[in-house]
Amino acid sequence: MSDLKLITDRMIEKKKAEIQETINQTRLETKETIALATVKLEEEKVKQLHLIDKRLVEDFEKNQTSLENQKRNEILTEKQHFLYNVFEEAQTTMEQWDESTFQQFLLSVLEQFKTMETIELVLGEKSSQNVSETWIKNAGQNGLPVSLSTETISRKAGFIVKDKTGIQYNFLFDSLITETRSQIIPSVSKKLF
Fold first, then answer.
1. Is pTM, for the whole model, over 0.70?
2. Of 126, 130, 128, 116, nearest in space to 162 by CA
3. Range of the domain at 178
4. Which of 26, 34, 51, 157 is the most buried (most CB within 10 A)?
């Protein structure tokens, strides 16, 4: 029996050793698996951080571009508003010319029509008080073939010159400003914008 006990003890010892070896092997494999998983997890973390950084940079650049565009548009709007005001002020100033200034402007325009046989002057309602029939007669005596129309152009400042064939030359201030604006805006825009 003692031999049997000895054999059994040896078998138990051998089994314990095998089990202990299996446990040690499993622990080693588990440590390797954990180490490998930790490395992969760290690589994934670095990859995700890189993607987050990339997205943040892209978002920042988009926001920066958007802000730059918004700023440029606001500046452009201000410049356009400024130009609009300049032309509005010019028209208002012209509409408020005193009699002498208006007559000087009118005379410089009528000089261009000196070679015509006859012209008719149609005043804008807002400018009609600046020219009298006497002034027209004096202009006629100075070689300008002009007559004053009895009609006026409602709610307008400036005048229209008509030749005997019916051609009209528009010197209404709002038309002059509009025409000047369309000629000046492109060159001014290049310089301002």
1. no
2. 116
3. 97-192
4. 157
